[in-house]
Each structure stands twice: as structure tokens, then as C-alpha cells.
Amino acid sequence: MKRTEINALIKDAIKILKEQKFILPPFAFWGPNEWATKGNEYDEIRDNQLGWDITDFGKGDFKKIGLFLFTIRNGNQHMAKYIKPYAEKIMIVNENQITPYHFHWSKMEDIINRGGGNLLIKLYNSTNEGKKEDTPVMVHSDGRVYKVDAGSIVRLIPGESITLQTGQYHAFWGEEGHGKVIVGEVSQCNDDSTDNRFYDEVGRFPDIEEDEEIAYLLGNEYPIAK
Predict the structure, then answer these.
(1) C-alpha–C-alpha distance, residues 73 and 131, integer Å
(2) Are strands 196-198 and 51-55 parallel, antiparallel or unpaired?
(3) Closest by Cα among 192, 166, 67 to 109
(4) Are 44 and 82 in contact (CB under 8 A)?
(5) 15: part of which helix (H) or strand (E)?
(6) Using a CB cutoff of 8 Å and minimum separation of 24, what contacts does 64-69 make?
(7) Which of 142-146, 174-178, 192-196, 212-216 has the lowest mean pLDDT?
(8) Which helix (H) or strand (E) holds 5?
(9) Do residues 190 and 71 lie in contact, with contact meaning Cβ atoms separated by under 8 Å?
């Protein structure tokens, strides 16, 4: 991805979230110069990769396969000093923009349609070998528990949510004709380095072509505290 694209996506997201009256924490708006002044008191942000997160999953076509996220809070399974057992994110999903099939080994998560369009989620159970399983999938959605066939699509309108269990394959995208979807995630600790199992090989973080100055750092770009 080009830095021009990343900068534009962040600026557009700030506008969209403001219109939705979703207020981001102050560190969302710190640029590289301000980050250079921040000491170890902000290591929780650095160590747990809070903040902006944009990925094209290594496919080079963000509009088709990609996801825009902001991690608001997160614990850390590898650092005992960070005791939060939970995480929270806000995401923006475009129409027909796919987040590819994956599950989490340890993390259970609630995916919440916070507003905008409709979110479509396709579900499978997984085998011990990490394959998709052709068995009915148990769905937990806003207090309702029911089963669907393997490969079924669950549709979340604004306000609805689904709980995704560990080992449950899911892919999602915005429904065509209904606009961008503001998606919340409330989960156990998030660890993108070890806890994700993608069905097909992908890249979690984009390779970036620096074609203009950085407006806002991504969560994996913070400088080490002086």
C-alpha cells in the first residue's frame, strides 16, 4: 500500500467516526513529531499496538480484500505487567470488502454492527488440522443461540452482534447497496502475532511505499521511547 492511501483512509475514517459520534482517544491524533516526545509512560500503547491498523492482507488490493481498524484498548498475553484480559476495537468495513477466512486459537470475540450498512459473516467450524468442517455451526447472537449449516451467512443489521468462538472460521464484508459498516469488536486479548489462523496464506501488515510524509503512525510503527 502507498502512504498516500493510508493517510487518506485515516483522514476519511476520522470524519466518518465523528459523524457517527464515536469519539476516539487523544492518542489517535498524535503525529510522528508528537510521538517522538512521548516517554515510557506510553509503553502500553506501543507494546499492545493500540491505535491505527490498516491491512490489505498482503494482496495489494485494499478495496477488495482489506480491513480498517483502530485498537482502543488491549491486554498482552506475553507481558505480565499488562493485566487487562480484554480488548476493544472499532473497524470500518466497505461494501464487498472481504476480511478473509480466519479463526483465533485463544480469543473469543463479539463482533457488533455499530451503524451504517449491514455486515455479512460467513461461518464454518474448523477441524483439528485447521480445515473447514462440514458440520452445523452454533451461532450466539444477542442472547439467541441457534444452528446454521456450514458456510451459512449471518446478516447483522445496525445494533446486532455475534459471538465468535475460538476455532470458528469467519469471513466478513459489507452488504452491497447499504454503505460502509461501522463495526465494533469486544474480545479477549488480541495477539496478531500468534493467535490468528488464516485459511489461506496472507500478510497481516502491509508493505508500505513511502510516497508522502506520514500523517499518523500505525500501531506497529511507534518509535521506542527515549
Answers:
(1) 31
(2) unpaired
(3) 166
(4) yes
(5) helix 3-19
(6) 64/96, 64/97, 64/98, 65/97, 65/98, 65/99, 65/100, 66/97, 66/99, 67/91, 67/93, 67/97, 67/99, 68/9, 68/13, 68/92, 68/93
(7) 192-196
(8) helix 3-19
(9) yes
Do 220 and 49 form a contact (C-beta atoms < 8 A)?
yes
Tens digits of per-residue pLDDT, 16-32? 999 999 999 999 999 99
Position 209 scores a pLDDT of: 95
pTM of this structure: 0.95
pLDDT at 123: 98
Q: Cα-flanking dihedrals φ and ψ of residue 209, to 5°?
A: -90, 115
Which residue is associated with the grid cell 467450524?
125
Identify the three-state secondary structure at position 8: helix
Distance in Å from the first CA to the final CA of the chain: 29
Q: Is the pLDDT of residue 203 over 90?
A: no
CA separation for the pair 18, 137 (Å, rounded)? 36
